[in-house]
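Hello,

Our lab assistant flagged a job as stuck in the queue for most of the afternoon. It eventually completed. Since we weren't sure the result was trustworthy after the delay, we are filing this so someone can double-check. Below is the sequence as submitted and the structure that was eventually returned. Let us know if re-running is recommended.
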Amino acid sequence: MHEWSLAEALVKTVINETKNLEFKKISEIKIAIGRLQNIDKKIIKYAIKELSKKTPLENAKIILNEIEASFKCRNCNFKWRLRDVKIKNREEIHFFPELVHAFSKCPNCGSSDFEILSGRKIWIENIKILK
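-- returned structure --
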């Protein structure tokens, strides 16, 4: 479960980004999660809450915003979304999103030469603080 290590990195980032600000507490964090990462939202939310204890992030509202994975074929320019196709071995993609090229092809022309337009990575979209 790499959700715990991602949660740890998120908590550290929020604390580092707010350490020089004057505030009473962090009230909310909004996190974008690329669908291609296949992250278990319950686990990462729980991990963030546990790792936030006794930090300025404790008791903050955690909002997880899932970003749909989308692709564009370099051969025929067809665009599609992850949810539109069946992909075997999603577990491998969970750890290495770039492997999507080995397990998927353009539904229009069958090419495996495509780019990932969205749905990769995880990032902090917003941090709300109470002054």
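-- support follow-up --
The delay was a queue issue, not a problem with the job. The result is valid. The chain has a mean pLDDT of 89. The radius of gyration is 18 Å.
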